[in-house]
Specification:
Keywords: Hydrolase. One of its GO terms (molecular function) is phosphatase activity. InterPro entries: Acid_Pase_AS (IPR033379), His_Pase_clade-2 (IPR000560), His_PPase_superfam (IPR029033), Histidine_acid_phosphatase (IPR050645). It comes from Albula glossodonta (roundjaw bonefish). The protein has about 450 residues and is α/β, with parallel strands linked by helices. Strands 1, 2, 3, 4, 7, 8, 9, 10 and 11 form a nine-stranded mixed β-sheet that branches. Strands 5-6 form a two-stranded antiparallel sheet. The chain is globular, with a radius of gyration of 23 Å.
Length: about 450
């Protein structure tokens, strides 16, 4: 049943953006003439999911999490995707991932389960990336090998399934025997570099900032009191149930908000909570506590990204396309650490791409033998390297902290050395440190 509640136009616009998904910007991979794409690394947030929290004493939203190609939203590849996933046993899986379902299967969605909408979002993402990276730039050859593709996911079914959907859109009917899917135990994708006591201190301070901002919002407080009265529970219990998670699901799936004998939760209440979330994002940027947390949270992943680029540039046998399937708590600090202050909070199916490019070789004196221009190229291995960062298909490279002052008229892409210097040294300036280890174990004065 559709909702028929009027809300302020600007609030409705914000909510609609949250509901739309993230595949509408479709311009990755464009480049100046003669530049060669060497590798691509993509971080994604899982697609649309069922709520993680239930509003007390209300009926959970009725959503079918099985995949039905004839049901909207759908995709031309959905039926083939379902069929292909039934052969997943031929792939190689880290033990934690091996027991997870390859696609959603419950008629009544379980908490946090990926929906058909979520699968379709990433099939479309994969299709977009295939058009650019596979068809146009030939990043992976038709007979690609297992070492050329890297896939990593957290141990949640929604991230694994999202990654597989994108992968199928990228490489339809891919050979399972070539696929190795690796498990990342940390939502920060920090691997063996997760020990960082100061990072946890900054996170605790950031959480206290959030709490103080919410407590000071009298309209938000009255809204929670009204909502708690409607469902018949103490206000504290309703807050703990994180009602926005469930209400967003109702909105995105065009369902009426929950009702009880005392009345129904309303769009106006939903809008108040969303408005407070936007104010929190603005306050977070002004205070700077979250940035300090984000720099330490994102560094291990960014360091791995830079190291992988270096190995590709040096001509070593390395992944040409890497996919990391993650969560909002993974991508949000990554965006902040990159300095992308204008980037919106990562919605369902958001994607962040790191592209590595090489410029054309310089003209050689007559009679000299030109040096290699492929992946490697001898002494040229690290010369002429450039990076580009895309968020949901939009080129945001020159919004990043490491390239916002770059003269793009002299060089149309961002020099890799800028990115490398930022990851290895410059990003710690804010923390009054010179290395990740120092920043993690000595508090900035």
């Amino acid at each position: 049943m559709k909702m028929n509640v009027k809300v302020p136009a600007e609030t409705l616009e914000v909510v609609m953006k949250a509901a739309r998904g993230s595949w509408f910007n479709e311009r990755p991979g464009h480049s100046p003439a003669g530049y060669k794409l060497l590798s691509v690394q993509v971080m994604i947030r899982h697609g649309d999911r069922y709520p993680l929290y239930a509003i007390p004493k209300t009926k959970r939203p009725t959503i079918d999490c099985t995949l039905v190609p004839s049901r909207r939203p759908s995709h031309p590849q959905l039926a083939a995707f379902i069929s292909h996933m039934t052969h997943a046993g031929r792939g190689r899986w880290d033990s934690v991932l091996g027991s997870l379902p390859r696609f959603p299967t419950h008629h009544a969605c379980e908490m946090g389960e990926l929906t058909q909408t979520g699968i379709v979002q990433h099939l479309r993402n994969g299709e977009i990336l295939r058009t650019v990276y596979i068809k146009r730039h030939k990043l992976l050859p038709p007979d690609w090998s297992s070492w050329q593709l890297y896939v990593e996911s957290t141990g949640k079914s929604r991230t694994l399934q999202s990654g597989l959907a994108l992968l199928y859109g990228l490489l339809p009917e891919f050979d399972w025997t070539k696929l190795v899917v690796r498990h990342q135990w940390s939502t920060l994708f920090c691997g063996s570099s997760c020990d960082c006591p100061i990072r946890n201190q900054y996170l605790e301070e950031e959480q206290r900032r959030q709490y103080k901002l919410r407590v000071a919002d009298t309209l938000l407080d009255r809204t929670y009191v009204d909502m708690a009265r409607t469902v018949g529970v103490p206000t504290r219990q309703l807050r703990a149930a994180n009602p926005i998670d469930s209400l967003l699901c109702h909105f995105c799936h065009n369902l009426t908000f929950p009702c009880t004998p005392q009345g129904c939760l309303t769009m106006e209440q939903f809008a108040v909570i969303k408005r407070q979330q936007m104010e929190d994002e603005r306050d977070r940027q002004q205070r700077g506590l979250y940035l300090r947390y984000a720099l330490l949270a994102a560094h291990p992943f960014l360091n791995r990204t830079a190291a992988r680029m270096l190995r590709v540039a040096d001509g070593r046998q390395e992944e040409l396309f890497a996919l990391f399937s993650a969560h909002d708590v993974t991508m949000a600090p990554l965006l902040s650490a990159l300095g992308l202050t204008r980037a919106r909070f990562p919605r369902f199916a958001a994607r962040l791409a790191f592209e590595l490019w090489r410029s054309p070789p310089p003209p050689m004196p007559w009679g000299n033998k030109a040096m290699g221009w492929g992946r490697g190229g001898g002494e040229r291995g690290r010369d002429g390297l450039y990076v580009r960062i895309l968020y949901n298909g939009e080129d945001v490279t020159f919004q990043t902290a490491f390239c916002q002052n770059h003269d793009r008229h002299s060089e149309p892409l961002c020099p890799f050395r800028n990115f490398l210097s930022y990851v290895q040294r410059d990003m710690f300036n804010v923390l009054n440190a010179t290395s990740y280890h120092e920043a993690c174990h000595r508090r900035a004065v």
